[in-house]
Design a protein that fits this description.
Blueprint lengths: L4 H23 L16 E2 L20 E4 L2 E4 L5 H7 L1 H8 L4 E2 L17 E5 L2 E5 L5 H6 L1 H9 L4 E2 L17 E4 L2 E4 L6 H6 L1 H14 L4
Parallel strand pairs: 4-6, 7-9
Antiparallel strand pairs: 1-8, 2-3, 5-6, 8-9
Helix pairs in contact: 2-3
């Protein structure tokens, strides 16, 4: 019987296609491994609520020059403006911060207690801050920058460390920075630059100190 040439050609074609498929599968490059997620570095910042122009000269202020008042800091353009502000701090404050933002903070940024009933109000750098009681006023003035940060941004959590994670010394008033969403207290404002180099290590050290001091 004569061979069926059509069937033979069909089988040959199928065999060739199968070989080509196998060869293609062997030559195909392997897919790349899935990329591993890299944690974003912790952001480090220092909240500032400064006036734009000097209330004495009307010039743009220097970020490094300010004078302390009962209403917080007033930034100035030169050191000579300090005496004029001290002579009439109320007038200087009104000139530096002509508008007031009324904050609706539900928690006292000094005592950490929930504010119930009639709050005690304090003006700090263009913000009306709600306090738990009159006893909180002097402490709020002493740490005006820290108090403002807590009142303006309620999501921030104060670590409560008593020793600076950079120097190991006792923390100072208004010396702090924000690492992520945590407030880390420092012994001096200059320590912020060191925190920026290793923010995670600084935060962990501050948390450990707070736990040791019974603050966590």
């Amino acid at each position: 019987m004569a061979p069926n040439r059509g069937a033979w050609r069909s089988r040959t074609l199928c065999f060739a296609l199968a070989l080509a498929a196998v060869a293609g599968a062997q030559e195909a490059p392997a897919p790349p491994p899935p990329a591993q997620a890299v944690a974003a570095p912790l952001a480090v910042s220092v909240p500032s609520y400064a006036n734009t122009n000097c209330p004495v000269m009307g010039k743009p202020v220097s970020s490094k020059l300010f004078t302390e008042t009962d209403h917080g800091r007033i930034w100035i353009c030169c050191k000579g403006c300090n005496k004029k502000i001290a002579a009439d701090p109320e007038a200087a404050y009104k000139s530096a911060f002509p508008r007031t933002v009324k904050l609706d903070n539900a928690v006292c940024p000094v005592s950490g207690k929930k504010i119930e009933g009639e709050p005690t109000l304090l003006l700090l750098q263009g913000h009306e801050v709600r306090l738990h009681s009159k006893e909180c006023v002097e402490l709020a003035r002493a740490e005006s920058q820290l108090v403002l940060a807590k009142a303006v941004e309620p999501k921030l959590v104060d670590v409560g460390n008593v020793l600076c994670p950079i120097t190991g010394k006792a923390v100072a008033a208004n010396a702090f920075c924000v690492v992520g969403d945590r407030i880390v207290r420092l012994s001096a404002p200059d320590c912020v630059e060191q925190v920026k180099k290793e923010p995670k290590a600084a935060l962990e050290k501050a948390l450990a100190d707070a736990r040791a001091a019974g603050k966590q």
